[in-house]
Amino acid sequence: MPKHSFSYDQSKTSYPILIAIAIAHLANDMIQAIIPASYPMLKENFHLSFAQIGVITFCFQLASSLLQPVIGAYTDKHPKPYSQLIGMMFSIIGIIALAYSNNYYSILFSVIMVGIGSSIFHPESSRVAFLSSGGKRSLAQSIFQIGGNTGSALAPLLLALFVLPHGQHHILWFLIIGLFAQIVLSYIATWYKQVLHAVKGQTKKLIKIPDLSDTTINFSIVILLLLIFSKYVYIASITSYLQFYMMEKFGISDVQSQVYLFYFLFAIALGTLFGGFLGDYLGRKYIIWFSVLGCAPFTLLLPFASLFWSGILVFIIGLIMASAFPSILVYAQELLPRKLGMVSGLFYGFAFGMGG
């Protein structure tokens, strides 16, 4: 029997791996999303100001944004199949620390741990999605992203059900998600390690380099970064303060406000999925323009809307906002196909963190 019976076909889409990495992304981003979803509870428990809430967001985004491009650039040259497991371990430590935080500085420590975990997780996970795509890159990117967006959408609902009625310590329930993710990531890491062995010495032959000058590529990457940065500024603002806005304007409870945050985050998940498919059929450029300009009228209406219409507007805004994400990421990956980790770090990490 041959020592290595595994074979890798880059033209064949590996759906089990795509689904597995989407599930892992769901778990990772669900743990991340606990942080903004818990702001009202933390604000009340520790008598925090809105400025202090902003610092919590800044620390989380900074830990993720500064490390992610560096880790991505390193793993481009030295792939680490098991690094995602290490990243999830940092996130688990962060969850435990958040559940038992008894002062402001321990909260900052916990969110920094989760940020570091995210910065380690994303670069190699994005590469796994790329390698398992079988050439269907928009589809693979949509599946990968919808996993993360679904996790972000579910976090406030689960927090409202299992944590808010019982108290801060019940954040520990999310450990189940982290431990389950470790099992899924072990399966992915084994496949990834086998792929690396199968393509050893053939990487340059398998990668298609765009016939563009370095100046054109660099300029295009900067434009794409600015586009996604502007979107993340918008998303970070809503996820950080939407609950407070709904509670203040309409007098609803903390638990009820989580439902409106869910509307927005779930719409982002749907927008990511549909945006990936529509980008293939209608053209990525048109989807990006629609996403950039389409949110403006609904955003301008939001301050004048009733409670009912606020929910609808928030959903529409999230749907349109997220529709360009797959197209932007695939453009960037095709421009720099040998630097997938760095691209992931820049777009999932740096742009998202600076936007926050």
What fraction, in percent, of the residue positions are helical? over 70%
Helix-strand string: HHHHHHHHHHHHHHH
CA-atom Rg in angstroms:
20 Å
Poorly predicted runs: none
First-to-last CA distance: 53 Å
| Secondary structure category | mainly alpha
- pLDDT averaged residue by residue: 86
User: How many distinct beta strands?
Assistant: 0
Protein name: MFS transporter
Keywords: Membrane, Transmembrane, Transmembrane helix
Transmembrane segments: 15-35, 47-70, 82-99, 105-122, 143-164, 170-192, 212-239, 259-279, 286-306, 312-332
InterPro entries: MFS (IPR011701), MFS_dom (IPR020846), MFS_trans_sf (IPR036259)
Structure description:
With 356 residues, the chain is mainly α. 80% of the residues lie in helices and 0% in strands. It is built from 15 helices and no strands. The model has no long low-confidence stretch (mean pLDDT 86).
